[in-house]
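User: Some background: our group keeps a shared notebook of sequences we're curious about, and every so often someone picks one and asks for a predicted structure to add to the entry. Today it's my turn. The entry only has the sequence so far, pasted here. Could you supply the structure so I can complete it?
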Amino acid sequence: MQTETSSPIPQVPDHYTTLEVAKLLGMAVRSVQLMVDRHELDAWKTPGGHRRISRASVERWINARGPAAIPGGSNGAPASPQGAVRRPGGSAPAQVLLIEDSIHFQNLVSLIVQQHFPGVALHVANDGIAGLALYGQTQPDVLIVDILLPGIDGATLITTLRSHPQFTRSQLIVVTSLDEQQREPYAFALQGVRVIHKPSLVAELPAALAACLPAQRGLQ
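Assistant: Of course. Here's the predicted structure to add to the notebook entry:
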């Protein structure tokens, strides 16, 4: 009588590479590296110098933020409920374009907008190139841009948009994880611009948006 032999059960790896995490979370590799630097993810380096990121820490990060932390949501404009913040003339809801590659901060800005400005139409682009295209399509009242972006960095994007006459109708807010010293190479694009440090986003963004949105400016 022959003894059946079962195939070994494949082992689930207990770690990812930086590129694998970037693909999983829908982020740029640089954004994942910054998350490691901020100790949001647990990581170490192999003897060959390659970074490995703990699978458990990635799962904790996703679970803490819910299913929306995984890419796949729509980047279109949400339906406009009653009480919407509208453009002058009342013909359309105010438009906000967020250009940000971090799913975490996309979700955070979305929550802030929904909570404080429920009628605003929020559009999201994951990188600078997509952001340029979406800007042309939406002509937003407010543009929120991260400095560190894949494709075209935020500073170059801002400089490019400023060369277009239609940009004069948009209010600009820059969000960044860089401190003041780290922002110095981008100073040419940030002069006269409201810059919010990402750790202060929840506290500062509502007031910044209120000052920029057309209906809100009319109340001031």
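Suggested note for the entry: The chain has a mean pLDDT of 77. Residues 103-116 form the longest helix (14 residues).
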